Amino acid sequence: MRRRPSSSAEDEDGPEPATPNTSERPATSKEMTPPKDPPRGPKQSLKPPDSKSSRETRRTSTHEQRNAANSWSPSVVAAEKTPIAGNKEAVEDASEQHRHSRIHVRSPWRCSFLTLATSVCSILLLLAIIRAFVTLQLDPKGCAMSYMRPSFTKFPDFDTEHTRFASKYSLYLYREGGVDEDTRVKGVPMLFIPGNAGSYKQMRPIAAEAAHYFQDQLRSDPSAIENGKRPLDFFTVDFNEELTAFHGQTLLDQAEYLNEAIAYILALYHNPERSQRELGLPDPKSVIILGHSMGGVVARTMLRMPNYQEKSINTIVTLSAPHARPPVSFDADMVSAYQDINSFWRDSYSAGSTSDNPLADVTLVSVAGGGLDTMIPSEYSSLTSLVPDTHGFTVFTSSIPNVWTGMDHLAIMWCNQFRRALVRAIFDVVDARRSAQTRAQPERVAALRRRLLTGMEPVVEKAALNHEPTTFLTLEHSFTTMMSHGERLELRSIGQDGMTKAHVMPVPSQPVSEGGKFTLLTDQQLDTGTDNGTIAVFLCSVSPPPTGASVLSYVMNRDIQSSSSAGSTRLACKNAAVDVSLLPASTNQSMNAFDDAMPFSYLQYEVADIAENQFIAVIERTSETSNGWLFAEFSSAKESSILVNKGHHQLLINGMRRKLPPGRPMMVELKIPEVHSTLFAYRLDVDRQFCQGALESFAPFLRQYIQEPYESKYFVNTQGGNINVHGISPYMPPPLSGGGASEGLSLQLWSDPTCNSTVKVTLTVDVLGSAGKLVMRYRTVLAAMPVLVVAIVMRKQFKVYDATGVFISFSQSMDQCLRTSLPMIFTALTFLGVALSKATRGPWARHWLSASTGTTDNAVDFTINDLLLGTSDPFFWFLVPLFGLITVGICITANYVVLLVVNIFEFAYTRTQALLSRGEDSRRSPTGFATTTTQQRIYTTGALLLLVATVIPYQFAYLVLCIVQLMTSVRSLQAARDISSTQAYSLCNYTHATLLLMLWILPLNIPVLVVWMHNLSVQWLTSFSTHHNLLCILPFILLVETQSTGNMVPRVTNRVRFLTNTIMFALALYAAIYGVTYAYRLHYIVNALCAWLFLLHLSNGPFSLARLGPIVPSIFSLGCGRSTKKRP
């Protein structure tokens, strides 16, 4: 007697078979578990012979078709014999009961409580994250509108003789109406590069400000003209709003065109008919570049192109440009271009000598908009992994003096405060007396730092310290206040004595005040020597100025002739006004840092830097009493700096609380090294008591800042605010120096030192606000992780199918995976993420990476954050299960949405087919599948391949295949409902699963497809070679064509089936580990999977894969050895 096969042959993979009970159920009950190793039958297809029978006739024979479809089951044979000797009515009832049971098992709409609960939790989490991103931790908007009178002149003679892109792109010259309408070039050339889908007209506000600034201020300033300041000739290019961010070849084409445009622009200055340049000025040999968004990346690409003219670019300013990594990784050319460009810049600056560095004379400044920029993460604008601080830096607009506000991706082009600061910074580096049109490289960097940074950064040089004394200060003792060591200078009413008065503060010795600072804060403008400021600050020493130096005598209240009396002191001094930092005004009425108010003046020196000076002299120059105030003091590091050593866990649980005592210095700094991640958002509360005694001269205000990139935010009249930083971010490469990327968050608090009141500072983690930060950093996860889920679910479907012959529905397979596979996989990925984050910090990991890449152990691995979560911080381990839960819910929802669409199309298709087939001889088979011959299918496939090879990109063919697969799913659903057999529903589930997988790969192909369609709209028909790779689409075509004929993939019961599981598991693993960084490769892996499935389809033909079983290594047979018993 044969032993009945066990239902646990594939443990939980298959549907639970019904166990027969002869005492309660008739022998006609049909088992759904087939033999484990049935003999391979003929090719499995739902396409029967041609028949002219009506739909009604087919439906009456449904019972016989089901029996024929299941004729390989022994229990089915028994069921067929029972009606001869049994009760016919009982048999029909049992058959109907089995039919409903079987349909329930295969119903694609089945949704268990676990599936429903997972979907609801996932959607709620996703909505909460999106809501937090939209509504929480938002920076205030403070940009003022700008106005201009633009005029553009096109250069039609920049044609195909100069560039092959003349019919696609255009070059223009901007002139401001009413200021400069002469189209001849006369000044310093500057070129604007628009970004992704950007217009050439976006540069109007900046170009207009440049024209007005030179016309209104510099033109009438003899010293500016003498120093080489000339107007800017603003050029701009029209790229027809191309989508540069989505296509690497487009980026390279634009870079090639721009190099040719620069050669043409420089040639204009040699043409007397086109140039009105002053005599004596050299012809320009370099162009200043201004790039917005992807235009900044194109600017860096230009120096890598073969047609780049050496030294034709030496200054690049980029606005909201994603330098560190591509915005999306859907295009292979884009990822490859980024890798090549960034490697070129890193290698150049890593060269040992200047002669080996092609970028030695290039200065690069990147300006980021901050949290308001929702197009790209602002940390992508960081240059720390590309350029040393000697040649460039990254600054946020909220840090720039007199700007002090963040801005979105487009506002950075028209914001009035920012354009004024940017134009002045550009003119600071202009020098038309040199052929390069700019100052020397070190001077350029220093000038840009002074204009765009706060002045409190360590890299900003203190200009007064490097200058020789230029002022001979004679102090009359009767009008001078000599202060003692450690005494604070407090002036609440400047000029109240009605005369010029000096306050001299002795500089403490270095051992006494190690790490100490000198700070001065006032609401008055400091006198620079060329204006009439009410306050002058000098760094003085008793020694006289150098012999032969140009000295300005500064005498107190009497004629210089009598200044040598015994009651006077002479000091050689340097004016400290050149080192002043502007801070936003803070009063009891202040609302935001960008309010229209006169800024405060602030000086800060390290005591060690000014140790060579004996005194600091503060001069009141006004003879009239004003409400102005000034505070100056020396403070030790112990008093003014507080280090908070709290990690993520402590800040998350307990937060940070500090109480500042009444006798604190005017400026107190809190340093929190562990606060540096972009994934955290915080809430700051400042609780200050009322001022005791006199009224506050100014309201307390606070500055949050981090170093590299230079980001500062100000909170005036502060009671707290939202704290978020753009420091260490997922998937960002490490710094070029290889050291730590950030020193953490610092909070500087200024308060009136005479108030003698306490201040409580509290910093807590904003959990919901932190959730919103995930959107910008991990949005590509929603394109990669669903592929993992779909691959695991399809893997389960194939395992069940190979074991039982039933291809279960996607929803049923998802339900089983939720109980077994998916939790295990996400748990394993969680441990993998923690292991990777810790391993990358160890010396053995550096040794292994250096051995695999051929570099030294000390070399910086810039791909170290490309894996999984993109971070080396194990604290964020919980993101893997979080993203897993969200993507599972998205996949479940997407499955039912696609099911709904397929059912709607099936309903419309069935009704349309019924109307068209009335009274006609339909050429369709009873199952609704096409009855085309093999030759016709070969012709169709060949024609599509020919189009891909010559005209259309394979991305367009992929879109067509998705539509064809949708219609195949519709017809397979119709056939399943008509035939109502296990085989029919298996085919329906198989085509549906394939459709889902293809739809999740579709977003990777859409961007390139949009670029191709845009090129057609501008009549640019030149194709890109990478778009016509037949191997990238051929397996998809073959599989979709095979499924469109109604062919079901055959079961594989030998060792070859493990290869199917391996390919799908490899797809899932790659989607999890590298899916975000190299998303485009998912298309290639799915393409390989389609090729394998097509080979499985061929196994029913003359090229059977059954013979490959013995060839597969024995490792696949683990657990399937001698102890495994074959089913009868």
From TrEMBL:
Give the enzyme class: hydrolase
**Native organism:** Extremus antarcticus
Gene designation: BST1
Under Gene Ontology molecular function, one entry of this record is: phosphatidylinositol deacylase activity
Bilayer topology: Multi-pass membrane protein
Q: What range(s) does the GPI inositol-deacylase transmembrane domain occupy?
A: 781-1097
Q: Where is the composition biased (Basic and acidic residues)?
A: 49-66
Q: What does this protein do?
A: Involved in inositol deacylation of GPI-anchored proteins which plays important roles in the quality control and ER-associated degradation of GPI-anchored proteins.
In the Enzyme Commission scheme, what number(s) does this protein have? 3.1.-.-
Which residue ranges does UniProt annotate as crossing the membrane? 111-134, 875-902, 944-970, 990-1012, 1058-1076, 1082-1098
**InterPro entries recorded for this chain?**
AB_hydrolase_fold (IPR029058), PGAP1-ab_dom-like (IPR012908), PGAP1/BST1 (IPR039529), PGAP1_TMD (IPR056824)
Which Pfam families does the record associate with it?
PGAP1, PGAP1_2nd, PGAP1_TMD
Region described as Disordered: 1-77
Give the GO cellular component terms, alphabetically: endoplasmic reticulum membrane
Listed PANTHER family: GPI INOSITOL-DEACYLASE (PTHR15495:SF7), NEGATIVE REGULATOR OF VESICLE FORMATION-RELATED (PTHR15495)
Q: Which family does it belong to?
A: Belongs to the GPI inositol-deacylase family.
Keywords associated with the record? Endoplasmic reticulum, Hydrolase, Membrane, Protein transport, Transmembrane, Transmembrane helix, Transport
The identity of this protein, by name, is GPI inositol-deacylase
Work out whether the entry's keyword set contains Protein transport. yes
